[in-house]
Amino acid sequence: MQALTLKNLTKTYPNGVKALKGIDLEVEAGDFYALLGPNGAGKTTAIGIVCSLVNKTGGTVEIFGHSIDSDLAAAKACLGLVPQEINLNLFDSVLNIVVNQAGYYGISRHMALQRAEQYLNELRLWDKRFEIARTLSGGMKRRLMIARALIHEPRLLILDEPTAGVDIEIRRSMWEYLARINAAGTTIILTTHYLEEAETLCRNVAIIDGGQIIENARMSTVLRKLQREVFVLTLRDPCIAAPDLGDFESRLLDEGELEVAVDAGQDLNQLFAVLSAQNIAVVSLRNKANRLEELFIGMVERKQAQAVGAGV
Amino acid sequence: MPGFDVNIPLNLIAVKTIMRKEVLRVLRIWIQTIVPPAITMTLYFIIFGNLIGRRVGSMDGYDYMQYIAPGLIMMSVITNSYGNVVSSFFGAKFGRHIEEMIVSPMSNAAIIVGHVAGGVMRGIFVGILVTVIALGFTQLEVQHPFITMSMVLLSSIVFALAGFINAVFARKFDDISIVPTFVLTPLTYLGGVFYSISMLPDFWQKVSLANPILYMVNAFRYGILGTSDISIGYAYLIVGIFVVGLFTASLMLLNRGIGIRE
């Protein structure tokens, strides 16, 4: 069963900007799916169309088999949205915001109050239920938007940069929470600028750029396309000059840290063999940058280079 | 069509939710929603009804105070019904929490009905308050209760719908004050609140007949005092046409996403 199916989705704004140039996308029910792309790539437009906040120019959208053209109410009932920008009624209380949202989905007030208690507790906002939304911190507002999106227990939850501007501790707790509700059966589509977030949470990924999908595959498959990974090694003994590691490109960051590039076709065993041969002991190693981030930047740069080469 | 979804239980709960939200909003900001019309109308009664009215004498056989009271009640109903919907719906657009409703499965008709009902509730509440104030200055005995109640309700619906359409088109806060300032207030003042149009020259009498508020004020005055410048049946027809026309226009605007969707 597909949670979301987009076919040849296009959007041209009145000023002539083609935000989407025919997107095809399928998200399986139960998936945790990442939709990535640079600013202005078309992610928010695509989400806006799915959620009826933006009129499409062409193509079709189905949510759990319900077309937004012919069966809009049923399609909307399956959907929960956590938008990129704070769109809470800042003058209303936390409890009213979630209970009212339930009312818009036809959930009785009695049931809405029960669910509000559950979700506000899970998102650590129950103590704040009588507070006015304006007085909440940025992280609390983000969590309130998640509670609001979950109050009608949607089958598909779309999160458009849900952790933007949230501190690391809260971001991690939100990741755990999202992983939990996904494990409980809710399909999740996530857009984010924190690529570590996508790499940690998502099983499948689509990369969108210039209104087109340039990659759409399992996260592990996409990461295998990485041509080069850069590792930072912490050395047990100080080094004065960068050692010669043969085929491995390296440079000394300081006397205790060595940066080594491992290209596709090379592996860490080979690297450690070279290091051992030179009596260089490694205490620890870490990726210099997020792997998905490197891949993402590489893909977008290649796409832009192709466009320039083609005279676009 | 999105506006004609038939999940009635869902939409009834959704309408009830909007109405409840609107009532709480009016009560939360009572200093802006309830106190100003009470003060303004008290001043109207003191200045126009009491001080100036004594020198004006009678109008259509009634004390001037009695004559203007129905018009002032209707004026407060109209302005508050309009003002509630335009500020609430535009506020929701401006703060983007309108998206809460747009993404939900509630129909566009339910969104309109909920907001209009909120405007009607505030309009009628303020109308009752102004009536109580009027009773402190003059005696009012309702001659035709059905006409009085139905006309105040229909007029309130008309202006709540007009406020909704204003809010749909508004892009900034200035846009929600232009219509009340430059259209609604002049039409109300020229709608026979303070005078009978029989006092006007023929030409201006005919011009006045193009003002829909004239029909509402006169029909309401007929309900209370039993006197009117115009035919009551004609007033119902005009108001009925406005209710249907404005509701249809509101629904078309929401269905097309004008001012709501990009």
How would you explain this protein's 3D organization?
The complex is a heterodimer of chains A (312) and B (262). Chain A has two domains: 2-224, Rossmann fold (3-Layer(aba) Sandwich); 228-291, Alpha-Beta Plaits, CATH 3.30.70. Helix content of chain A is 35%, strand content 29%. In chain A, the strands form three sheets. A six-stranded mixed β-sheet of chain A has the order 6-7-8-3-9-10, sandwiched between helices. Chain A has a four-stranded antiparallel β-sheet with strand order 2-1-4-5. In chain A, strands 12-13-11-14 form a four-stranded antiparallel β-sheet, with helices on one face. In chain A, α3 (94-104) packs across α4 and α3 runs parallel beside α5. Chain A has 312 residues and is an alpha/beta fold. Helix content of chain B is 75%, strand content 2%. Chain B has one domain (2-256). Chain B has a two-stranded antiparallel sheet with strand order 1-2. The radius of gyration of chain B is 19 Å and the shape is globular. In chain B, β1 (58-59) and β2 (62-63) form a beta hairpin. With 262 residues, chain B is mainly alpha-helical. Chain B contains eleven helices and two strands; from the N terminus they run αααββαααααααα. The A-B interface holds A 13, 48, 51-55, 72-74, 76-77, 79, 81, 83, 85, 87-92, 96, 100-101, 103-109, 148, 152 and B 2, 5, 7, 9-11, 13-14, 16-18, 20-21, 24, 28, 92, 95-97, 99-107, 257, 261-262.
